[in-house]
Write a structure and sequence with these properties.
10 strands, alpha+beta, 22% helix
Length: 178
C-alpha cells in the first residue's frame, strides 16, 4: 500500500472521528430528509485542488438520492438495505466529516449556502460505509465524496391549475405598437 494512500486513509479516519466528536442529536425530524433528491451540481471542496471532471458534472446531473426506512440509494453504488439513520446538528467545523476543520469553517459554510450555526445532518450508516448529508435549506442538500462537494435538491411538485382557469399564467395585454 502506498504512503499516499495510507496518509489519505488516516486523514479520512481522523476527519470522521472529529465529526463524531462535534455532532449532537438534532431537533429536526427525519422527515426533512426522506424521499428523493436530484443531483444539481458538483464543486471542489474548499481548499481542494481537485476540480470536477466533465464526466463527474454530467453524472451528477443524472443522479439521485433516495432515503426511505427500507433502503438508501444513491449514485456510484452508494446505498444499502436497512440503513441506520441518525439526524444530528453539526457545527461548520464538522461539515463533510470534518473536511472544513482547520479552515474558516463558518465562512466556507456560508459561501456554500448553509445557514449560520449548526447544520441539520443526516448520518447514514450502511455496512460498507457511513455518509453525512447536510441540509443547506429545506430543499437543498450537500455531501462530500472523493474531495468534491455534491449538491442535490428536492424535486418540486407542480400544483394543479386553479379550477376553470388558464393554468394560473395570464398574459397582460400590451398597448399597440410595442
Amino acid at each position: 500500500m502506498s504512503h499516499a494512500l495510507v496518509r489519505a486513509f488516516l486523514v479520512a479516519a481522523l476527519a470522521l472521528v472529529a465529526s463524531l466528536a462535534v455532532a449532537r442529536p438534532a431537533s429536526i425530524p427525519m422527515a426533512a430528509f426522506e424521499g428523493r433528491w436530484i443531483g444539481i451540481g458538483v464543486e471542489p471542496a474548499p481548499g481542494a485542488r481537485r476540480q470536477p471532471r466533465p464526466v463527474e458534472r454530467r453524472d451528477t446531473a443524472r443522479s439521485s438520492l433516495m432515503f426511505s426506512a427500507e433502503s438508501f440509494t444513491g449514485p456510484w453504488q452508494m446505498g444499502c438495505a436497512n440503513p441506520r439513520y441518525t439526524v444530528l446538528s453539526v457545527p461548520p467545523e464538522g461539515l463533510f466529516q470534518g473536511m472544513l476543520a482547520g479552515r474558516d469553517a463558518a465562512d466556507d459554510a456560508d459561501r456554500m449556502g448553509f445557514p449560520d450555526g449548526d447544520v441539520p445532518t443526516l448520518r447514514v450508516d450502511c455496512p460498507n460505509a457511513t455518509f453525512d448529508f447536510h441540509l443547506a435549506g429545506p430543499t437543498s442538500l450537500r455531501f462530500a465524496f472523493d474531495g468534491l462537494i455534491y449538491a442535490f435538491e428536492r424535486p418540486t411538485v407542480a400544483s394543479p391549475p386553479p379550477s376553470g382557469g388558464h393554468g394560473g399564467a395570464r398574459e397582460t395585454p400590451r398597448p399597440p405598437g410595442r
